[in-house]
Automatic annotation (TrEMBL):
It is found in: Cytoplasm. Residues 379-405 are annotated as: Disordered. It comes from Gloeothece citriformis (strain PCC 7424) (Cyanothece sp. (strain PCC 7424)). PROSITE patterns: KH_TYPE_1 (PS50084). The lineage of its organism: Bacteria, Bacillati, Cyanobacteriota, Cyanophyceae, Oscillatoriophycideae. This is Transcription termination/antitermination protein NusA.
Amino acid sequence: MTIVNLPGLKNMIDEISQRHNLPKSAVHEALREALLKGYERYRRAQSLEKNQFHDDYFENFDVELDTEEEGFRILSTKKIVEAVSNTDHHISLKEVQEVVSEAQLGDEVVLDVTPDQKEFGRMAAIQTKQVLLQKLRDQQRKLIQEEFQDLESTVLTARVLRFERQAVIMAVQSAFGQPEVEAELPKREQLPNDNYRANATFKVLLKKVREGSHRGPQLIVSRAAAGLVVYLFANEVPEIEEEVVRIVAVSREANPPSRYVGSRTKIAVDTLERDVDPVGACIGARGSRIQAVVNELRGEKIDVIRWSPDPSTYIANALSPARVDEVILTNPDERQALVLVAEDQLSLAIGKEGQNVRLAARLTGWKIDIKDRAIYKADKENQTQDDQSEDHQVNEEVPEEVEIS
């Protein structure tokens, strides 16, 4: 069989594998693809007809690397036909039966179609060098994708490398591809109080692994995702890890619409153990546990509240730290509620620029309207008096019945 010599092939694969921190199998595959691309370009250059080869014309061709003989062969899978119309894809039954008598129409055979060493070797080497680097990058991206695909929505430790426009480019540890893999932290996923100086480390949530070939990091990470808060609490609170305490819901506003409002999170917790205080477990002795989470999030305000199956109780808890006097479920089907608070609790319940009630609504899934209890009661009494006055006026205007005999 014909072979195109590649002196030092085995050593070259070992060297590339070490330099790019890739498995030898990945380097082998990248080299095979690069050589096949080189053969395709060679054939196109030899052809006088520009449109002779369509996009998938060379799909039945393959490259066989031989590390022992330090070379490679071009193989073609051809279909056995009665009359040959394309010698690249077909071979005649008569020709095959001269070698294999039991061959039949429709069968496929693999043939060595390696061009002559002199006319093809030099061009293949040039084309391979041009394509190999890209193929190696593709292999790295493929391995990174396979490695991190199962890690989406998990938390990683990342180190700041540099800045690109408003995004922060960070490095996370990888087993393949490179010792570190680049990840992008977009502007919308950053925290306003973070100081992203070079080499600073942060806990980040892996939000997405990009697929396909494109410029820029494959990994998109976040510091603003609610899942990061869940991880940090699970890491600090053993009762959560042991499933004694469970996190029912999280509502987070890491990047408020106004710069005058700080980042804030509300987290609802519950337990099935009668002797366990889920809120106290998350806060810790002298606030030690929640303080560790707050420090990681650079001072973000966090409200831990008790979840309740009763909507009224749950809504009242969600508006913490405000004290709620009464919750009226005005339209349970549409999940609408009216909350009454004392005058001195009104601004606290609503929060700066509505942040507290906004987070409580997201946490509970209810539309919440907050009113001053005294004003609401007064308005309701006035409305009742007006309704009674109108009824009395109507009764006075009704004429007495006259009996006609």
